Amino acid sequence: MAMVWVNRIAAVLMVCLMFFLAVKRYVFDDGKLRSNRRFTIATVYRISYPAEGGPDADYQYCVNQVTYKNSASISTQKPQPVVGDKFLLKYYPPDPQVARILLDKPIDSLLISKMQIDTCGR
């Protein structure tokens, strides 16, 4: 009987942790990006298919000569990105890992060449 309670407590703690992570991402990180943000270019380097959902766009971007990698869920309602597509990305300068890629429309390489953005030599 004690094991049942341990399992229930573990399940409740897991749900609370997942809720906290979601709140952190959508409330605190988005607040940081609204108050202080910079833009750079992210490049999709892989389309992955995780077991728990739809496709993800794995992308990388460069800030201050450091390359960061992340992924974002791809909406099935919009045009699908392909490997090599470049998108605008906003990031929080004190912590560039806090970032959001804008997967609405790929950016043309001619436009990128006119922007003064550090791409780490890519």
UniProtKB/TrEMBL annotation:
Top-level division of the source organism's lineage: Bacteria
Record-given protein name: Uncharacterized protein
